[in-house]
Request: fold
Amino acid sequence: MIIADENLHQRIIDCLREKGYDVYAIRTEAGGVADTDVVQVAKRFQGILITEDKDFGELVYAHGIADVRIVFLRYDTKTELDLVIERLFQVLTNPEIVSGYAFITITARKIRVNRL
Reply:
């Protein structure tokens, strides 16, 4: 299951659903909850949390949350959204990348996988 953080661009959510992914959208299911609660949702569903919120990096690296799979997207909405969506699907369809706990950063230029 994909956990779409509250700030995730709606076009990304729509593309995920069009490709057949089961998406739990925080915006509609639990809007306004704290980031730590979003992490708990991801753990409960054993899902992949997709976010554009850099605060999740702080939760992982400064607060030691390590039993999650987070995909952090960084891009310019006007010029890089399509490329980042393409890269996101490259990640989601690669079992070597999405298996196990990781903090994955996707930009228009690269994909970085940090195992937790």
About this structure: The first helix runs from residue 10 to 18. The mean pLDDT is 95. The longest strand covers residues 69-73. The helical segments are 10-18, 26-29, 35-45, 55-61, 77-92, 95-98.
